[in-house]
Write a structure and sequence with these properties.
Layout: E1 5-9, H1 33-44, E2 48-53, H2 58-69, E3 74-79, H3 101-106, E4 116-120, E5 123-124, H4 127-139, E6 145-152, E7 163-171, E8 174-187, E9 190-194, E10 200-203, E11 208-216, H5 220-235, H6 247-254, E12 260-266, E13 271-272, H7 279-291
Parallel strand pairs: 1-2, 1-4, 2-3, 6-12
Antiparallel strand pairs: 4-11, 5-13, 6-11, 7-8, 7-11, 8-9, 9-10
Helix pairs in contact: 1-4, 5-6
Length: 305
């Protein structure tokens, strides 16, 4: 069996949420969503976890999460630093915001040497997603074959406000096109988004969307660097304080070049804490999961203690 790893995107600012949502407590035994993500990944067969965080958050992650999971899985930090840029580029003075998930992916280039999956820290994906991705990474992945788990748009919305999603077009179970669409919401019986003409336009309920759940080899780091450099040259001057580049955009820009991207469709309901108002629903969901026996009360119980 090949060693495959889980990489977790946990360096975001959480501006809409109003805090460090990656480790905010949602479980009735002090867990955050990331606890359930790592638990599901271990059960699926993943043997190492890389946490992409900001250096100043290391102590908070160590105390609230990592010290509990070290008996169960190997853990390594990857620090996303806004000053870590490709040669020839300098971070604009005054910028605080990280550069987005493409940059976070690129930040792994010196540490991750094996096939891996990457996902968000603050999203709940469901057990099946990890099992499907682990199987793909064991059987199919190579430098010409990557993958993503796609979710139905209707299963990925927030009742607390609009969301951004990478909306996918699929042909023969492979990603043919992906477009990052902002300001998507449910309106009555429809799902709509604000188009470039500032008009609310409908999106199909059954559309598959990316929730940042990808399977790659380390070869992807060169691809991420290439697209990130293009982004810096193209977009940096227009908004040097907040502009960022994300993995769905990177994939959309490079599809049909050197690799195929296989889509593993999930019918599970995604949920997360995009907004503070989402939290009560998430808390109730995890409490119900434990009552149903899907998760034990104590995820990280060490036998004999």
């Amino acid at each position: 069996m090949n060693k495959v790893s889980l990489v977790i995107l946990a360096a975001g600012m959480g501006s809409r949420y109003g805090g460090l949502k990656q480790i905010d407590t949602v479980g009735n035994n002090g867990e955050s969503i990331i606890d359930f993500t790592i638990y599901d990944a271990i059960k699926a067969g993943f043997s190492k976890v890389y946490l992409i965080i900001r250096k100043e958050h290391e102590l908070a992650f160590e105390q609230s999460l990592v010290r509990h999971i070290r008996p169960f899985v190997e853990v390594e930090y990857v620090f996303q630093d806004k000053d870590d840029l490709p040669e020839g580029f300098v971070c604009p003075e005054g910028r605080e915001k990280p550069w987005g998930t493409t940059h976070a992916l690129w930040a792994c280039r010196k540490q991750v040497k094996e096939a891996f999956m990457i996902c968000n820290a603050d999203d709940y994906y469901g057990k099946d997603a990890f099992a499907s991705m682990f199987n793909f990474l064991q059987t199919t992945v190579d430098d010409q074959n990557y993958s993503m788990v796609g979710y139905r748009l209707r299963n990925t919305l927030s009742d607390s406000g609009t969301v951004s999603r990478g909306v996918c077009e699929i042909k023969n179970d492979q990603l043919d096109k992906i477009v990052e669409i902002a300001k998507i919401k449910r309106e009555g019986n429809d799902i709509v988004y604000l188009n470039t003409s500032d008009v609310w336009e409908a999106l199909p309920y059954e559309s598959l969307v990316s929730m940042n759940f990808w399977g790659f080899t380390p070869n992807v780091f060169a691809l991420a660097e290439k697209q990130f450099i293009k982004f810096l040259k193209r977009d940096l001057e227009s908004n040097p304080m907040k502009r960022e580049h994300v993995i769905p955009t990177m994939v959309g820009e490079t599809l049909h070049q050197d690799y195929k991207l296989h889509v593993l469709a999930s019918e599970n309901t995604w949920f997360g804490v995009t907004y503070q108002e989402d939290k009560p629903y998430v808390v109730k969901q995890f409490e119900a999961f434990k009552q149903e026996g899907i998760y034990p009360f104590n995820l990280w119980e060490v036998k004999g203690e």
